[in-house]
Amino acid sequence: MDNPSFQAYRLHAGTDGAPPEGRFETLSADALSAGDTLIKVAYAGLNYKDALAQAGRGNIIRQYPRIGGIDLSGIVVHSAAPALAPGQEVVVHGFGIGVDCDGGYAEYARVPHEWVLPLPAGISLRDAAVLGAAGYTAALSLHWMEHCGLTPDQGEVLVTGATGGVAGVAIDILSQRGYRVCAMSGKPDAAAYLRSLGAQEVIAPPDPAAAIKPLMSARWAGVVDSVGGSVLAHALASTRPDGVAAAFGNAGGAELPTSVIPFILRGVKLLGINANSPMPLRSQVWNKLATEYRPARLDLIARVIEPRELPQALAAMLERGSIGRSVARFS
Fold this sequence. Notes:
Layout: E1 5-12, E2 21-28, E3 37-45, H1 48-55, E4 66-67, E5 71-79, E6 89-93, E7 108-111, E8 117-118, H2 125-147, E9 156-159, H3 165-176, E10 181-184, H4 191-197, E11 201-203, E12 220-225, H5 229-237, E13 239-247, H6 261-265, E14 269-272, H7 279-289, H8 298-301, E15 302-305, H9 310-318, E16 325-329
Helix pairs in contact: 1-9, 2-3, 2-7
């Protein structure tokens, strides 16, 4: 079936400065963005970036109409690439899907074959979507942190923004690899959940008004940060000599009120994590997710919803009303 009809959740430009309007529509594959590979979508993840796009914040989507969803898992219908056979299970994230071209919030997606990664053995379509861009970011962070010498015997690893999707997977992976994990969260009711993922301790974020000294008591061997802003600055000032921090988010602000002191006096390493990686690195990290980085508690992190629940679930993410990873089931 080269041009199937299907349901999609598509955003349309708002009028007179209003936020985009999202609605469910019946489309054909001809209406999708260009690409040589058609995928029947199984699951699509809900990400903070998707929530911002639906609300019209951050100038994320610039051309409408657009099907959102920056990651998906599914089955190849047909492809111009011989390596992608019909029926093959795949995952797609990044490369502008759901932003510059149509994404995963539909029963079918069409993308260039260069963006499609065959699933490693042992990862189901549901688990691939639960991991998605978030799980990949968590694994990529640990990949580079360990590349810089981080090992479990060096001390505690702090995970900030701990109830988020990336952080939840990071806690799970770190604990499986023998790290002692401290989860930082502003949601006191989530402490039991975070401990169930493998966190040995749960702490509150620092007071945003608290002074950030150039150096504070050294505690963290590693930091996995999705918050940025003063939270990351406090963490860097508290990182042990030769410790390493991975930063990939700015939920707490894009400014970083720190100094060079942690870097030049303690040798702290700050790694910027860009999950829009080239395909060879993606393949390497996804293979780790199927083996030595394999999470053990995805069932605790995952929440599967129906497509009709997308608008409300995305809105809840902006109100800090979500925990873990939600995925929409399309087939």
